[in-house]
Amino acid sequence: MPENSSPDGRPDFSRLFKHTDDPAERARLFEQLATELRCIAAALAKSQVGHTMQPTALVNEAWIRLFGGRPRSWEDQAHFLRSVTVTMRHILVDHCKRKRTQKRDDTKTEYFDELVQSFERRGHDLVALDEALDALAVEHPQMAYYVNLRFFGGRTNDEAARVLSISGRSGARMWSCARAWLLQRMAQ
Amino acid sequence: MSDRFRRIEAAFHAAREVTDPAERERIIQAACAGDEAMLAELRAMLTVDVPTGFLEPEPPPPPQQAPQQVGEFELESILASGPGGVVWIARQPSLDRKVAVKVLTAGPGTPPAQIDRFHRESRAVSLLTHPHIVPVLAEGQAGVTHWFAMQFVDGHSLAREIELQRTRKPGDPAPLLPAFGSGAWFAAVARLCADAADALHLAHGHRIVHRDVKPHNLLLDQQGNVLVGDFGIARDQRFGELTDTGVIIGTAYYMSPEQAHVASAPIDHRTDIYSLGVVLYELLTLTRPFDGTTSQEVFDKIRHTPPPPVSQRNRHVPRDLETICMAAISRLPGARYQSAVEMRDDLRRFLEHRAILRQPPTMGARLRQWAHWRRRPLTLAATALVVGALTIFGHNTVLAAERHTSLEKRCRDLLATENLDVMSDGALATLWADIRAAGEPTEEPLRRADARLRDYRDRLVARGQQGLADAAKMDDTTTRLTAKLGAWLLLRRAEAVDPGAPKLSGDSSQLFLATIAVTVVDDDRQPVPATIAIAVVDPMTTLPRAPTALGSAPLSGVRLSDGLYRIIVHAEGYGDREFPVALDPMERRDLELRLHRVDDLPAGMKLIPAGDLYMEANGPPTGLAGKVVAVPSFWLDACEVTVAEYREFVRATNHPAPPFLDQIPATHDRRPITQVTWEDAVAYATWRGKRLPTLAEWMLAARGPGPAPRALPWTKAGFFGNCRKAYRTSSTQEQLFRFWLEDAADVDADPDSCTPEGVFELFGNVDEWSESVGTTRDKGGLRVQPQNRFVVGEGWSALSRDFTTLTAIINTPTGPTYRQLSRGFRCARSTTP
Q1: What is the Cα–Cα distance from B829 to A5, expressed in whole angstroms?
Q2: How does B63-76 read in b/e, with b if 16+ C-beta sit within 10 Å?
């Protein structure tokens, strides 16, 4: 049994919660998480229940599948959300870019197609947003991260604020500032 | 975070606080300190139009992995979903019944507080067994799924009911309550709010505050019974505060000012009383006291405006219900009902036709409230009003502290105070008394302070006297009243500041006297020599007291306090005539009393002999209840005034005709006239040399004298006159008019309706205006409602019911437009005015 697998043969994602400074190790864990998310997405796309394509649903599902809803410390939950939303963002933006260059993606993609479309239907340009978010991350990493949680993680203000250990009111202020800044940046 | 971005963020939030573009620009210019790129960025941030929904998630979906079953409950379909969880309709096989199950699927980042809150709801409710609280049947948890089962209420929420009452689209279910605006509606509304208050009282007794009372959370079953549900954000004071302080929860429209952080008061059970008051308001008017599209807008309104009185939105609302509602939505918790049970009891008193305990705000209280809302007083008078109100009703808490400071320092403080209006009169008075007690002021600060106080007092007096003089010139009653009261408060303050000063303000009641002028004219409006007397009408007995002679017409400058009077005119060739006049405080009225020659006055009238009227204590809430009143003899029209009689009056006097008068065919000449206002009825009666009967007179005519009066109605058990056996609905006045043509009867058509004295249809055909001013009984006595009149009897459009007690006395507004197709009148006349 590989060391990073749980008894039922699935990767043991508790490793994700262990902070590691080794970039190679981190990249490997993120890759695993991305693979897992894609699998979950594929399953969701097929399942009868999964009729709404929402990051909230995907993240919640990932949480249940990967950790069985076992009680976790808040740090674990926060770490999970940090990891999973960053991964989500990469998957989605990659997916979007690939679609634009007409390249085929050999993984199961219906779910992400839907998800990307659901953003685009609401007028969100994911690639431009990704660039603007990178710029914001230079200026104010916490704010960029907050947007990640809200937008790619589908978290509410209270949830996102909690992950960042800030008050709900600070979160709401951050949200209004971030939206205005990102919009003016994307309009440049 | 970069320093540059920190400045951007701070300037962005600061600039957003202000609306003035120039001020915004100033803020961001200052923040950028010449950094042009940053300035451009900030300008773009502030002007960019953030589309709604930008970066926002779509509305939360139902949980992906919806469990099919929780506990023994089989989930069937989703009833509602929200951030607090999803409510399912489910089946409980063991008992073969429908239940409602609330399910929360915890995801990552679901704050533990939310889960706690979820279980707190079921825990809180399971403590409460009450017929008007949705009971919790079971609760549990499986993995990430938390759930609890409640009784399924077959019906819909009050929010839906309000929607249905407002507009009903095809296919919508039938409303569960009677039609909006009907008497039955008001009764149903009072009952359900009383029940909800009773339920909340039980919760409050367990130290549970609901905190989210709103129409969505009040469910109606098929019988129209209310059940309080969704204790989702309830705060159980025993379990401690679980939500973050500063987090606003609940729906803005129904939130109390303290909950909306508008008023800084701790949140306690009185927040529920406020919210229930808003629900009552919405039920009475189908509008909310504070509306808006965003919660910010709603909060702004709560902050800056007093709630519009219920009667302004729907003037048919019974006065007592309005009083209860407005009391419940007082801005300050201390001004509301102090417990839900007090509110419940007043609602029940209303339902039982008993006097409620809560008093409607007095004129003074309304003015104080008005001043309170006007944070920036608009006029000199208004400033004085605010200062005065603070002075009279505020606390002189500064006093004790100030004694500790040396007199000299206090004098210097006084001299440093730019505007003495901001200081309490108690503080000024004490200081002045202390200066005087110190002997002849010689030291510099004391002398100057003494001079300043003297000057201040003199200016107060001058302002007050000027205010009184200005007020006398104002035409509008309310403005005049405000100005006068403001001036009076200035004088009061002058007296308070200088306790040794002579009383300048005088008796305040003098300020509020009304002034009348009386002329007496004939049909051609030529003056008629006449002597005039006036009698106060006792609002309790509805009978006039002994008259006082005023002199000969014309009269002017007669000062009277507010109330109902009868002016008795004696003129050669006309005999004695009586004119009712209702006066508001401070009103100025020029009365032109018209005399019309009438031969054989008592034609068509029956003499009702003097007699003692006995009224039951549990009778209708008038001043008569439980009393024995000696009613002098009087004449009363045998019949209600007919169409033909009223036509004659309209032709002779050019008095405005009621709607439809010209469409009434000649075959209906002897039908009772309707659609007349109280003023119309008085104009007709006085033209005929008569007046309207008072409530006591009508009761005596209907019931006869003595301790064993005849039952009302005296015709047939269960019926009276031509009142209907079934409702006919009509949406338009035209349709109602057609019903009137069919259903109203000739005024003397029904011999069964005749009393032994020969008076027809006291209790049927049309209900009738009385002369008497509306009153309500109260703990402290009788309260007069000067804008209302008692209406007596029942009309053709009323449902025939078994009237074992007399409920057919209505307190009705008398506005110039208040007319109904089932309302007429008859005249009376005193035998010895």
Answers
A1: 104
A2: bbbebeebbebebe
Q: Between these two residues, B144 and B391, which has the higher pLDDT value?
A: B144
- Going by the DSSP 8-state scheme, the letter that residue B253 receives in this structure is G
Q: What is the pLDDT of residue B723?
A: 63
The token duo for B609 is 């002999």
Please say if the pLDDT value at position B335 is more than 70: yes
Closest CB to B50 among A81, A138, A179: A179
Question: Residues 138..167 of A with a Cβ closer than 8 Å to B: which?
Answer: 138-143, 147, 149-151, 153-156, 158-160, 162-163, 167
Please give the mean pLDDT across all residues of chain B: 78
Per residue in B195-204, pLDDT (tens digit) is: 999 999 998 8
Rounded to 10°, the helix A55-67/A110-121 angle is: 140
Q: Give pLDDT tens digits for B232-278.
A: 655 544 333 333 333 344 567 888 877 776 555 677 889 899 999 99
Q: Count of CB atoms within 10 A of residue B181's CB?
A: 15
| Peptide linkage before B713 cis (omega within 30 of 0) | yes
Beta bridge partners of B774: B785
Count of CB atoms within 10 A of residue A118's CB?
16
Find residue B582's DSSP bridge partners: B564
pTM of the full structure:
0.42
Q: What does the alpha-carbon distance between residue B427 and residue B421 come to, in Å, rounded to a whole number?
A: 11
Q: How many CB atoms lie within 10 A of CB B662?
A: 9
Count the alpha carbons within 13 Å of B519 in the hemisphere toward its beta carbon.
8
* Residues β-bridged to residue B605: B637
Provide the pLDDT for residue B134.
86
Distances B701 to B613, B755, B756, B770 between C-alpha atoms, Å: 10, 8, 10, 13
Name the nearest CA neighbour of B713 among B774, B776, B759, B744: B759
What confidence category does residue B207 fall into, taking pLDDT thresholds of 50, 70 and 90? Answer: confident
Beta partners for B221? B155
Task: Please enumerate in sequence order all residues whose Cβ is within 8 A of that of B134, keeping only pairs 6 or more positions apart, or say none.
Answer: B100, B125, B150, B151, B153, B219, B227, B228, B229
Q: Which of A139, A173, A183 sits opposite B48 (nearest CB)?
A: A183
Q: Nearest 5°: CA angle at A30, between A28 and A33?
A: 115
| Dist CA B748 CA B395 (whole Å) | 66
Rounded to whole angstroms, the Cα distance separating B86 from B118 reads 11
From residue B143, give the alpha-carbon distance in Å to each of A43, A155, B83, B622. Answer: 21, 21, 19, 64
More confident call, B80 vs B376: B80
Q: Which residue has 């104010």 as its token pair?
A: A140
- How would DSSP label each residue in B296-363? HHHHHHHHHSPPPPHHHH-TTS-HHHHHHHHHHT-SSGGGS-SSHHHHHHHHHHHHTTPPPSSPPPPH
Q: How far apart are CA B789 and CA B678, in angstroms?
A: 8
Cβ of B45 within 8 Å of Cβ of A151? The answer is no
| B340-398: pLDDT as tens digits | 999 999 999 888 887 788 877 655 455 555 444 443 333 333 333 333 333 333 333 33
Calculate the alpha carbon distances from B330 to B258, B343, B366, B382, B393 in Å: 11, 13, 12, 22, 17
Side chain identity at B268, as an amino acid letter?
Answer: D
* B624 Cα distance to chain centroid: 25
Pure H helices in B355-476:
363-373, 380-393, 398-403, 407-416, 425-437, 444-472
Cα A123-A125-A127 angle, rounded to 5 deg:
170
**C-alpha Rg value of chain B to the nearest Å:** 33
Angle between helices B3-17 and B21-32 (to 10 degrees): 170
Give the per-residue pLDDT at B714: 55
Using a CB-CB cut-off of 8 Å, the residues of chain B touching A115 are: none
On the question of pLDDT at A72 being above 60, the answer is yes
User: Smallest Cβ distance to A64: which of B8, B65, B247?
Assistant: B65
